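Course assignment 3, question 2. Fill in each field.
Student: A.L.
Task: Predict the tertiary structure for the chain below.
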Amino acid sequence: MDDIERPLSVSALTALVKELLEGSLPSVLVEGEISNCRPASSGHLYFTLKDRGATLQAVMFRYRSKALSFEPADGVLVRARGNITVYAARGQYQLLVERLERAGEGDILALLEERKRAFAAEGLFDESRKRALPRFPSRVAVVTSPTGAAIRDILNVLGRRNAGMDVVILPTAVQGEDAAAQIARQIEAANRMSLGDVIIVGRGGGSLEDLLPFSDELVVRAIAASRIPVISAVGHEIDWALSDFAADLRAPTPSAAAELVSESRAALKREVSQFVAELETVIRSRLDRARLLVGRFEASAVEARLMRVFMPVARRFDEAREELVRGMSAAIEARERRLELASRDLAAMSPAAVLARGFAVVRAASGLAADGGETGSGAIRDASVLAPGEELEITFSRGAALAKTLEVRK
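Answer field:
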């Protein structure tokens, strides 16, 4: 009863609650809606998980949040795996999130990981299969929706950077049940009819489920079998599909894919001008060098040049040798000092040195160690183990003596 009535400090009670919660709930899986999502400048992610009946504070540190496959936002339904912790400064419990995924996406991700392992085992993602893109393709085949934002972005970029490039649009659905088969057929058609020097396969952003056709086996195998280099441009930068791994190159967005296949005309003009300037500089430099060399074959000039080259090297060698000798000497002296100090310490701590300072070792004459003795040595360290009349052996720095106990003082 006294323990219950004894007051606890706020810190002590909070520590008790922290111990109970964190000990009983080491790992939990929570489903709820994100609310009050606040990404910090440090990269940490602070948010609230809520449902109709309750709210739960949550935090996800930067090294985990930067690996998310989606952008957390208010109203998104998620599943969070993590540990319950207590934030003592505010007296509240919170979820320390280790993994975060959209609710319902866990099964899809598991399916994609299984497919990814299977395709990788077949070698469909091997780097040895990847081919370099042609730098100046004259025609680009684009497999995407003819009405989506992706094709508009691609055409805008190509028109701005290289208006003379031909673009062949192979229309297809980019989501839904028939999308995968249509995408695969258009890739095969582009190869069969040689419709481009490069193929761009992609679409704009969407949910993980929307992007599933680009992870379908038909699409992955069609990309892997393509004899024309393929760029996969699916979704935004954080989105991904298995087509990214099978393609020769992955572009973070459809616009980026268009930039990869189109050299800017202004950039090409600047590059050519730079090459011309560099070539002129090199030619003038070599001509000037040749003029100088023609007049520099006299014996004195050759000797002077050789000495200018040799002397700095010889000086650096001498300095390095002297520095090495000094370093080795200093190292030897330091180790000699350490050895001398260690020898002194060893001599000072030896039993003979201790006895020489006036101390003695007392043993029972029988040679048996008592309770106060050191096992195996017979030395007496506690007077309570002795009895009057007991014989003792006292060892000094030089010699020993036998004695008998007259009285024991505790």
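Instructor remarks: The CA atoms of residues 286 and 331 lie 51 Å apart. The domain at 2-103 is CATH 2.40.50.140 (OB fold (Dihydrolipoamide Acetyltransferase, E2P)).
Grade: pending
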